Amino acid sequence: MKNAITPSLIVAMITILLVSCEPVGSPKPAKTIEIRTTILNHKSDSIYVKLVHERYYGGLVSSTSYYRQASGEKNTLIEQMNAYQRASYYNTYYITDANGKKDTIRRTIDLSEKEYHPKISETIVITD
Amino acid sequence: MQRIFFLVIAVFGVFLCGCNSAFRSSKTRIIISKEVANYLSNTQMIVHNNSPKKRIERTVTIENSENDTQFQLTYKKLKGNILILQITDSTDQIRNVAIPQIKLSAYPFLISTTVSPSLTYFVLTKEDNTELLSMLTVLYHSLAITIDAYAGAGTLLAKRHGRYTVPRTFKLSNVSDVKTIDPSIQSLLLDVPIPINPNPTPYLTQNYKKKWQYIFSISSSYGIAHESSRKLLEAQTSRVYLPNNISPGIWFSAGIHIQPNSHYQWGYSYHSKLDPNFSSKFLINEIGYLIPIKKGKLEIGGGLGWGMTKRNHENNYTDSFNTYKNKRLSNNTLLEEAYTFIPNFSYSFMPVNGHIQFIYPIKKKLEITASFSYTRIPSYSDFNKTEAILTTEQISPTAIVYKREVITLDGVTAKSINQLYSLGLSLRIKI
What we know:
Chain A is mostly beta strands.
């Protein structure tokens, strides 16, 4: 019985153990969603922005911000949340240029419980 | 199909590697001269193991072949390093002659050493590997080891005489060596000289003892890999070309081999690629057949083993398309496929090697070799794949919206099978 345990048998067993320690398949990424909204001023002059940000996610969260954006400047709003949850984002931009001309831009992003879209980004370019 | 093919190679490779006691001849032969054959033809002969505890005897017969030019004594195999050939003539005079024997070694031809390693490798690297499959593998090994333990022990017991044979270089050439003597002269009868090997070699000593030569080698080679196939694992798809080849470069290897006779060697060699971008290391259990050519030797060999491969650096790739799932997208919409490389992800594999090398001695215990080698090795590249919908929308005369929505994020693995051809030089030290 002792002679049946040969060096080759031991090598075979070590090989099996080492192979079993190896990962099989591809790495899986984490499930989060990143929403990125950017406003970029491509006008020759500054613009004045009033941003009303509303988020419906287990209740309403609302905020209003005012800022001035120089020509060529961009402003980005970044939010993160877990995937597979129902949520809605509304961003309303009230833009006034140097000549007093007003533009209103409303953007909506809906997140579904079923679909997984890990990154959503919107860039709004304001031109002359 | 490819897996079955390599399983068959693995099994038959072992068949060809070495014989087993179970498949050896049941008889042993001693070469004798014509004069000795003539003398012994009028005698009775037995061979025994000279054991005071359990004496085993075999009847010895004379055989001749090749037009009465080759004569030999044959007897059923008998265990023992030194046997006694007892010759008795018609006048009851006796002569005892010592017969040297060597013990043969063989590859342990068992389930665990043939089918199990390759079978396990394929099961564990199967893409849809499940816990049930892993459990069945463990159960299979328990069963295989149990069978091997009983079968191995049973074979060794049943074929305990089969491993012993008389060295081919041992001959009975002189009648004086076998001529019977008066049994009353006990000293002459009992004083049996141990045979001396007139031509000792590095593999057979002066006392007819087998000796192994141990060979340590280091080598360096330049290898070019040909990518014979490429696919993505787990039914993944890509419309972007993902390079996954192995660049040409220097390989390093070190080995230890055992040479039991002048025509055969076996051992292990470790191979590694000296490349910061791609790491491939493997250990091969290999055998080789040696053919003497003038002062040197030509070795033809091959082997199987186990290795690890890892890609450390690779580029990222991105492309965009106007279709998605074979449907055309609307105007101002594109689908972007982006691949971000994931470094340092290791994979195991089973390398298959074949080689031919010329060995030339430069000193008594130092040799140099020039070799050509073929090795089948895989390579892997891992990426994070993202599919994103790109849309452009003019929402007012003075505002354009560029939207990028990532709709899938997954890991993909590109696997290539590479045929590595390399030319190398090595140094071998024999002990």
